[in-house]
Amino acid sequence: MRILALFLLLCSVGVSASPRDPERYFFDQSFGDFSEELQTARDQGKQGILIMFEMDECPFCHRMKTTVLNRPEVQDYFRKHFLIFSVDIEGDIEITDFQGKPTTMKDFAFKQYRVRATPVFQFFDLQGKPIKRGRYTGATKNAEEFMLLGKYIVEKKYRDTSFTKYKRQMPRC
Q1: What is the pTM of this model?
Q2: Cα(first)–Cα(last) distance of the chain, in Å?
Q3: Which residue in 41, 52, 34 sits closest to 99, CA to CA?
Q4: Which one of 69, 71, 72, 97 is CB 3.0 to 4.6 Å from 22, fit for a cystine?
């Protein structure tokens, strides 16, 4: 029954409302202190934090924002379960990491999480630890695949299988 409900949800993603600005409706606003954001996520009953590592001239980041992250059903689902932030992998802006240490965006991305290509979607648990198998590099094929990634994390399927195997088990629209 659960797989049928997921199948119907994923198939309905193709029929969506008008696109909305992802900067306003997908990403949460942050003062750059991820240790505080963890507490906010806990207080709001979220499952964790999702960070999109990106850079300005990245065509794949742009494609994700204009074809996937701008979809109301994607925005609503992900914001229900996660606090979501963007980190510029070339950014010199000072932030505070999950352990409360000051750093820059680019050092946070490169030195702490070895992000070299963009986009990278990294899910973190409520202790600020990267979720095992909770990293996706590159643009997803479409909104349906990105929604499936969200379900994979929300339903904690990463504990049992890889995202690739999980996708293969899902019915096709």
Answers
A1: 0.88
A2: 16
A3: 34
A4: 69
